[in-house]
Specification:
Helix content is 43%, strand content 19%. By secondary structure, it is of the alpha/beta class.
């Protein structure tokens, strides 16, 4: 077995099935791959749908009752058989049929626990202006701010699309589910792996499309959770958190009033840069609320 694809999921049955179907269409160029899906407490019939599904790639379906993608991924690591693990989201569909072969080939060229691959994530179409702004402003991922080649594992080990040696993950203790069940869990793991000398390379030619629409109504809740996790991360690893994981600083108290003004501007039909500044104020106000909540 050359590659174990690890996918945590919760109440995303149709999206997960579409992702698995896309993985079944991958060419492997003589290599072997398996998929390990961990259901994290779904109530939408996901386990039954997976049991009934007849796919091409070997599929192992596990259950993890503790809520959080970290717990689910750690559960998958107990059963993954390949030397290399591809961490993938349940809504990440390969852009072409060479994604798996590409990850496998790179690890074949750089054998060892100290090597990892970061692939690119782009939104699946259609994409509205808010989602496009999220992508370029760095609130979702930061691919527009890095170049191909070595990148900092603490800043860019995105568990939505990255591959690395299975025993590197296991030797590091896996994900910290107790403190980071979801959000910042990959950043925290990246800090520990960086200490161990992990080399993470960004390969933008390995791309997936992210099928998860986001809206201004829902995203502040995510930002609030990110703020709380960011503070835990900074307190757990002082001096080691990446630069973008910042404390609110002197601007913190200003974001709340700015968010109120921003919503007023959006209601009045603001466009362009003014609209983006309003979005930024609303999300940063949520981040500050989360930071202060811990």
């Amino acid at each position: 077995m050359d590659l174990s694809i690890v996918i945590p999921t919760r109440d995303r049955r149709e999206r997960l099935i579409a992702t698995l179907d896309a993985l079944d269409r991958q060419r492997l160029d003589g290599a072997q791959a398996e998929v390990v899906v961990v259901d994290n407490g779904s109530s939408d019939g996901t386990p039954a749908a997976l049991r009934e599904r007849a796919g091409t790639l070997p599929l192992t379906v596990l259950s993890e009752p503790r809520e959080g993608a970290s717990f689910a991924r750690n559960r998958a690591l107990e059963h993954a058989r390949a030397a290399v693990v591809l961490l993938l989201g349940d809504d990440m569909v390969p852009e072409d049929d060479g994604l798996l072969a590409g990850h496998i080939a790179l690890h074949g060229e750089h054998a060892g626990a100290g090597y990892a691959v970061l692939g690119r994530v782009r939104w699946a179409e259609p994409v509205d202006p808010f989602m496009r702004w999220l992508e370029t402003a760095g609130f979702q991922f930061s691919f527009d701010h890095i170049a191909a080649g070595p990148v900092d594992p603490a800043a860019y080990l995105y568990s939505s699309h990255a591959s690395l040696a299975a025993h590197a993950l296991r030797d590091a203790g896996g994900f910290d589910g107790e403190r980071f069940p979801y959000l910042m869990e990959d950043t925290e793991l990246g800090i520990r792996l960086r200490r161990r000398g992990l080399r993470l390379e960004y390969h933008p030619e390995l791309g997936v499309r992210h099928h998860h629409p986001q809206t201004l109504d829902g995203y502040p809740r995510r930002m609030e959770a990110i703020g709380a996790a960011a503070r835990r991360l900074r307190e757990l690893h002082p001096g080691e958190a990446p630069a973008q994981i910042t404390a609110p600083g002197w601007k913190g108290p200003l974001y709340g009033p700015a968010a109120v003004v921003g919503r007023g501007l959006l209601g009045a039909g603001a466009h362009g840069r003014l609209r983006e500044r309003a979005w930024g104020a609303i999300l940063m106000a949520a981040y500050v609320r989360g930071w202060k909540s811990t």
